[in-house]
Amino acid sequence: MEITVAFSTNDGKTFVDKHSGDARFFYIYRITETESVFLKRLENTAPEEKKHADPEKAKGIGRLLKKEGVQVLVSKIFGPNIKRVRKQFVCIMMNDASIAQSLEKLQKKLPEIQAEWRAGEERDILNFKNKSL
Question: Which residues, listed in sequence order, are joined to residue 19 by a DSSP beta bridge?
Fold first, then answer.
């Protein structure tokens, strides 16, 4: 059982403190129940928003991450485009101090995350903020 996860970050260690799509990078990992493996740092080259909640921004992020096989997008904050992005990815909100802490939690929640992935475009947004896992 494994998933490919992208974390919204500017420094590779912590989450960006803005909307997920405003991150400079996405750090991509493959996660199983026993390990997490860093795959790559992906620069966010999605187009800048021309208006708030610009659908072109959501499409750009979707294309970037889909090309890398991403199934899950993790961030502290998602903007209004989450309604578009969740059709392509399992969106998870977390507020851990570091991405490393989140990796451990995601490993424990892998069956729940995979069940949400299988729900397709009707999937829910998972909120793991302030929850002990």
Answer: 77
Percent of the chain with pLDDT over 70: 92
| Contact by Cβ (8 Å): 4, 88 | no
Q: Shortest CA distance to 78 belongs to which of 13, 17, 11, 5? A: 17
For each of the domains in the chain, give its residue range(s) and CATH number, in order of start: 2-127 (3.30.420.130)
DSSP-derived secondary structure letter, 132:
-
Provide the pairing of β-strand 72-75 with 90-93: parallel
Q: Which of 68, 79, 21 is nearest to 40 (CA)?
A: 68
The pTM assigned to this predicted structure is 0.92
Element of type H or E holding 62: helix 55-67
